[in-house]
Amino acid sequence: MAIHEEKVELLKESLAEMLHVAQYAVTYRKTDRAMWANNATGGILGFAAVVVLFSIIDCLGSVFAGDSQFSVLIDGKNKRIKNASQHIYILNSKYFGLDLCQTDLDNIYKNVRSTLVHNSLLPQGYILQPGENENLPFNVAINELNGRIYFINVIRLYKFTQTAVQEFISDLDTGNIAFESSVTHSNVSKKDVPTPMYQQPQGQVQIRIKRWIRK
Fold this sequence. Notes:
The protein is α+β, with helices and mostly antiparallel strands. It has helices at residues 7-27, 33-36, 46-63, 102-119, 154-174, 183-189, and strands at residues 72-74, 77-79, 126-129, 138-142, 148-153, 197-200, 203-206. It has a 3-stranded mixed beta sheet. A two-stranded antiparallel sheet has the order 1-2. A two-stranded antiparallel sheet has the order 6-7.
């Protein structure tokens, strides 16, 4: 972690950190029985990986929220990202290149992303698997009762997210994304508070703390 003058540099560092953690999670193997007991089956840290990966997905989608020039194709219609629950639409953008229908996007957001983040659980019909040999991050099937079953291929989702972040950062660097005029940048900047040591181009400026509330 570092102190950054510009939010865009903080964004790039935080994305790199999250990708690094996700990589660790998908390459780790649970073999230590002293630590994992009956779960020491050689599996990856799938739940943790998916939480981190969806944080990245949320982040990328948030940058385009409210952007009238940005839309994604869903069920044959161009749709814009307007609110937090629609950040997941970024999966159908050029960054991920998926073609998920509205039903699947909504279900993945509600029952994978949100349920894992808030409850550390998954409902029935949603299955995490390494999926390193699968072509796509999500496989969707219809069972004989006409219910939808979702297979989340964690390693493949990591690979897609890694590629998406690389292209996203490239677009930031080339100016193809107007980050400083985004709603995300504006909302975060409104919350800025000077830190005790705030980095300036000409050097560090000491800002004295008047009093501690807690320490």
